[in-house]
Amino acid sequence: KYYPPDFDPSKIPKLKRPKDRQYVVRLMAPFNMRCKSCGEYIYKGRKFNARKETVQNELYLGLPIFRFYIKCTICLAEITFKTDPENTDYTMEHGATRNFQAEKLIEEEEKRIQQKREEEELNNPIKVLENRTRDSRLEMKVLENLQELKELNQRQARVDFESMLQQSSELEKRRKEQEQEEDVRELQEMLEMAQVKRLKDSDSDLNSDSDQEQENVKKMLKRLKKARAYEKSTDISTEGTET
């Protein structure tokens, strides 16, 4: 580049840039929002090519506030939001609505309660003592609950579930054996009653009926014994496979 001998840089007018000059930046959505035009949800962390500018006549403790322009991914409507250095957050400005954030509301409520408590304790020593007493009681209650939970966990850790299952299976097995013994006993009583009836009856027709009844009882007794022997064999085979 050629500079003539009479070149004087002080005579060159300075380029005045507008204060509301915009820059193209790459950013992510700072919070969940919903477009007012089409209802599309834009989730936190979604990337956009945005335009950035400095908000005029707005400062917070000397810090500038920036405005960002993005477009909806569906309808291309313009959405704007600003920085909020006071709350270290962003504020929705135009084109969309910010989704409900329960966590933020809880934090704000906790700050408000803490600030109110500090204001009450500022010139009231009795209130300070009451709050300390309440805090100590709450702490003791929390420690007691933790101790109860620890004891409960220790009791559960000492429980042997395999022994409990084995005990329940043994009880079930004993119950089945008792039922089978009762069935055998009832059949034997029926057989004895049939024999007594046969001795008392003198009629041949009655004798034939009692013989038939006795045969039926004997068959039932044999079937019951076979079923019992089969169940014992299956129990032994299952125990062998488990071991």
UniProtKB/TrEMBL annotation:
Residues 99-197 form a coiled coil. Keywords: Coiled coil, Metal-binding, mRNA processing, mRNA splicing, Nucleus, Spliceosome, Zinc. It holds the Pfam family Saf4_Yju2. Its main location: nucleus. One of its GO terms (biological process) is mRNA splicing, via spliceosome. Transmembrane segments: none annotated. It is found in: Nucleus. This is Coiled-coil domain-containing protein 94. It comes from Silurus asotus (Amur catfish).
